[in-house]
Amino acid sequence: MRGSGAYAGQYAAAVAGYRVGPDYIEAHRVFVAVGADEQGDRILGFYSLVLAPPELDLLFVADHAQGRGTGRLLVAHMQSEARAAGLERVKVVSHPPAEGFYHRAGAVRTGTALANPPAVPWDRPEFEFRIPPE
Protein backbone atom coordinates (compact mmCIF):
# COMPACT_ATOMS: atom_id res chain seq x y z
CA MET A 1 0.00 0.00 0.00
CA ARG A 2 2.64 2.48 1.04
CA GLY A 3 4.46 1.97 -2.27
CA SER A 4 1.37 2.80 -4.31
CA GLY A 5 1.59 5.82 -6.59
CA ALA A 6 -2.00 6.61 -5.61
CA TYR A 7 -0.78 7.36 -2.09
CA ALA A 8 2.15 9.58 -2.97
CA GLY A 9 2.41 13.24 -2.04
CA GLN A 10 -0.55 14.68 -0.18
CA TYR A 11 -2.19 11.27 0.19
CA ALA A 12 0.81 9.55 1.87
CA ALA A 13 -0.47 10.36 5.37
CA ALA A 14 -3.53 8.16 4.86
CA VAL A 15 -1.45 4.96 4.77
CA ALA A 16 1.73 6.04 6.58
CA GLY A 17 0.98 4.07 9.74
CA TYR A 18 -1.42 1.56 8.24
CA ARG A 19 -0.44 -2.09 8.41
CA VAL A 20 -2.18 -5.19 7.11
CA GLY A 21 -0.68 -7.73 9.48
CA PRO A 22 -1.71 -10.94 11.22
CA ASP A 23 -4.22 -9.23 13.54
CA TYR A 24 -5.96 -7.51 10.65
CA ILE A 25 -6.03 -10.71 8.57
CA GLU A 26 -7.48 -12.69 11.49
CA ALA A 27 -10.25 -10.13 11.97
CA HIS A 28 -11.20 -9.63 8.30
CA ARG A 29 -11.49 -11.55 5.07
CA VAL A 30 -8.41 -10.63 3.02
CA PHE A 31 -7.85 -11.91 -0.52
CA VAL A 32 -4.72 -11.51 -2.65
CA ALA A 33 -4.28 -11.63 -6.44
CA VAL A 34 -0.92 -13.10 -7.45
CA GLY A 35 0.55 -13.27 -10.94
CA ALA A 36 3.75 -14.62 -12.40
CA ASP A 37 6.17 -12.72 -14.61
CA GLU A 38 9.87 -12.85 -15.41
CA GLN A 39 10.60 -11.90 -11.78
CA GLY A 40 8.51 -14.78 -10.39
CA ASP A 41 5.27 -14.60 -8.44
CA ARG A 42 4.24 -11.04 -7.58
CA ILE A 43 1.35 -9.58 -5.66
CA LEU A 44 -0.92 -7.83 -8.14
CA GLY A 45 -3.42 -6.56 -5.60
CA PHE A 46 -5.59 -7.38 -2.62
CA TYR A 47 -8.82 -6.47 -0.91
CA SER A 48 -10.46 -6.85 2.47
CA LEU A 49 -14.14 -7.56 2.96
CA VAL A 50 -15.59 -6.66 6.35
CA LEU A 51 -18.85 -8.53 6.95
CA ALA A 52 -20.37 -6.49 9.78
CA PRO A 53 -21.12 -3.83 8.83
CA PRO A 54 -20.54 -4.81 5.19
CA GLU A 55 -17.66 -2.79 3.78
CA LEU A 56 -14.91 -3.10 1.23
CA ASP A 57 -12.29 -1.81 3.65
CA LEU A 58 -9.29 -1.97 1.34
CA LEU A 59 -8.75 -2.56 -2.35
CA PHE A 60 -5.31 -1.98 -3.78
CA VAL A 61 -3.80 -2.82 -7.15
CA ALA A 62 -0.04 -2.59 -7.51
CA ASP A 63 1.13 0.17 -9.83
CA HIS A 64 2.68 -2.37 -12.23
CA ALA A 65 -0.66 -4.24 -12.49
CA GLN A 66 -3.01 -1.30 -13.03
CA GLY A 67 -4.96 -1.09 -16.27
CA ARG A 68 -4.88 -4.86 -16.80
CA GLY A 69 -8.19 -5.85 -15.23
CA THR A 70 -6.86 -6.82 -11.80
CA GLY A 71 -9.12 -4.36 -9.99
CA ARG A 72 -12.20 -5.60 -11.83
CA LEU A 73 -11.29 -9.21 -11.00
CA LEU A 74 -10.90 -8.30 -7.33
CA VAL A 75 -14.28 -6.52 -7.35
CA ALA A 76 -15.95 -9.52 -9.02
CA HIS A 77 -14.40 -11.82 -6.42
CA MET A 78 -15.55 -9.51 -3.61
CA GLN A 79 -19.09 -9.54 -4.98
CA SER A 80 -19.04 -13.34 -5.10
CA GLU A 81 -17.78 -13.53 -1.51
CA ALA A 82 -20.38 -10.98 -0.38
CA ARG A 83 -23.16 -12.92 -2.11
CA ALA A 84 -21.99 -16.18 -0.48
CA ALA A 85 -22.07 -14.41 2.91
CA GLY A 86 -25.66 -13.28 2.28
CA LEU A 87 -24.83 -9.60 1.90
CA GLU A 88 -27.04 -7.39 -0.27
CA ARG A 89 -24.85 -4.27 -0.20
CA VAL A 90 -21.21 -3.46 0.44
CA LYS A 91 -20.09 0.08 1.32
CA VAL A 92 -16.88 1.62 0.00
CA VAL A 93 -15.24 4.80 1.24
CA SER A 94 -13.08 5.61 -1.76
CA HIS A 95 -9.70 7.21 -2.04
CA PRO A 96 -10.48 10.35 -4.11
CA PRO A 97 -8.32 9.34 -7.13
CA ALA A 98 -10.10 5.94 -7.22
CA GLU A 99 -13.58 7.43 -7.57
CA GLY A 100 -13.70 6.83 -11.33
CA PHE A 101 -12.64 3.20 -10.91
CA TYR A 102 -15.46 2.43 -8.48
CA HIS A 103 -17.99 4.13 -10.72
CA ARG A 104 -16.79 2.10 -13.75
CA ALA A 105 -16.83 -1.08 -11.65
CA GLY A 106 -20.55 -0.63 -10.98
CA ALA A 107 -20.61 0.99 -7.56
CA VAL A 108 -23.25 3.64 -6.91
CA ARG A 109 -22.28 6.93 -5.26
CA THR A 110 -24.16 7.29 -1.96
CA GLY A 111 -22.54 10.29 -0.27
CA THR A 112 -19.36 11.76 1.13
CA ALA A 113 -17.24 10.73 4.11
CA LEU A 114 -16.07 13.93 5.73
CA ALA A 115 -12.41 14.59 6.46
CA ASN A 116 -10.95 13.02 9.60
CA PRO A 117 -7.74 14.99 10.35
CA PRO A 118 -4.91 14.48 10.87
CA ALA A 119 -4.73 11.11 9.07
CA VAL A 120 -7.31 11.91 6.36
CA PRO A 121 -7.62 15.67 5.92
CA TRP A 122 -9.86 15.50 2.82
CA ASP A 123 -13.43 14.42 2.10
CA ARG A 124 -13.84 11.05 0.39
CA PRO A 125 -16.59 9.76 -1.90
CA GLU A 126 -18.78 6.98 -0.51
CA PHE A 127 -20.06 4.23 -2.77
CA GLU A 128 -22.09 1.08 -2.47
CA PHE A 129 -21.94 -2.13 -4.43
CA ARG A 130 -25.38 -3.68 -4.67
CA ILE A 131 -25.06 -7.45 -4.62
CA PRO A 132 -27.78 -9.14 -6.67
CA PRO A 133 -28.80 -12.67 -5.70
CA GLU A 134 -27.66 -15.48 -7.97
Please provide a written account of the structure:
- Strands 1-2-3 form a 3-stranded antiparallel β-sheet. Strands 4-6-5 form a 3-stranded antiparallel β-sheet.
- The longest helix has 15 residues, at about 70-85.
- With about 130 residues, the protein is α+β, with helices and mostly antiparallel strands.
- A hairpin with a 2-residue loop joins strand 1 (about 30-35) and strand 2 (about 40-50).
- It has helices spanning about 20-25, 70-85, 100-105; strands at about 30-35, 40-50, 55-60, 90-95, 110-115, 125-130.
Task: Supply database-style keywords.
three-stranded antiparallel beta sheet, 134 residues, 20% helix, alpha+beta
Helix and strand topology:
Layout: H1 22-27, E1 29-37, E2 40-50, E3 55-61, H2 70-84, E4 89-93, H3 99-104, E5 108-113, E6 124-130
Antiparallel strand pairs: 1-2, 2-3, 4-6, 5-6
Order of helices and strands: HEEEHEHEE
Largest sheet: 3 strands, antiparallel
Query: Count of helices?
Result: 3
Q: What value does the Rg take, in angstroms?
A: 15 Å
Terminal Cα span: 33 Å
Mean pLDDT: 89
Strand content: 25-35%
Count the strands? 6
Helix-residue proportion: 10-25%
In spatial order, strands of the major sheet run 1-2-3
